[in-house]
């Protein structure tokens, strides 16, 4: 049954009527009010949010904790992400319960992609390449197989920008172009493709260097907020050593990555606050050995790589450069990348690298490098 109200035209006529209140009976006009089941969507959302937020804090935390404990991996972990989307109180409860990848070894929120990976064991991922449009997709492995359906994490596309090459990295594969609002970072190479600079669209640490140029603005048409910087923040570099003499051996690479020190334990998907401090982590590729019987260079990938390729590599921290993260000795592989099919590659990373940083480093391996091979 529809509710009713007096129309605005009646209010104006009533104010001019000499009968005053007595004229209400004869002069009143009515118009249909929106029924409760036809209320605007935003009003219904406010009512639902208020209803869900009335739960006791102890009960709410226990609910989120039970959901988190019962969702070991995706797709079951979508229930944890759904809890954080109910309302602000549910999101705060999820943030207090869900542990970051460093502690749990799980990726839950988009912000987890820029947090350090697990310390005890590597996180297994794989990359699929689409040669037709130069697009690369990063997935989280859901099984122990080398490649499965996976959980989509990030996507990157390669563009030519004058004499340089750029990789735009984004959460959204349908919104992937320079200046896209969904971009989370990018990778830029020099003319020879031997030196790459990694940029983050949001300031990850205080004091991060910015790239200020018109071509590197985060938003192409307008700024969402005047408080959001339009610059890109440099978070790492990757360089390949020249090999003009064509001496025997695979590519040799060195990485200089900015990694957080004393990263917090909360994983808030709604806030992107810069870390207080960071330090430079130096990595180099692990030297392979020459196998006389096979007549090739070999590295032990522990069954995670099945196809020989010049793109395959393992990154380790040289002696004396692993502090303050304590990543172990030179035998501890921080990141390994290798080919398993024509357009499929495995990517295994661990603390202190994040999924975003590991993905960007692996992107540097694609493409021909005549000066290094």
What does this structure look like?
Residues 30-49, 259-284 are annotated as: Disordered. Residues 35-49 have a biased composition (Acidic residues). Pfam families: Tub. This protein has three domains: 4-38, no CATH class; 43-98, no CATH class; 114-363, Alpha-Beta Barrel (Tubby Protein, Chain A). The chain is 18% helix and 28% strand. The chain has eight helices and 17 strands. It has helices spanning 8-16, 23-27, 41-52, 57-69, 78-84, 88-97, 101-104, 355-363, and strands spanning 4-6, 30-32, 123-130, 135-140, 151-161, 164-170, 183-189, 195-200, 210-211, 232-240, 253-260, 278-285, 289-291, 296-298, 313-316, 333-341, 344-349. The chain has a twelve-stranded antiparallel beta barrel. A two-stranded antiparallel ribbon has the order 1-2. Helix 4 (57-69) packs across helix 6 (88-97) and helix 5 (78-84) crosses helix 6 (88-97). The model is unreliable at 1-36 and 213-230 (pLDDT under 50).
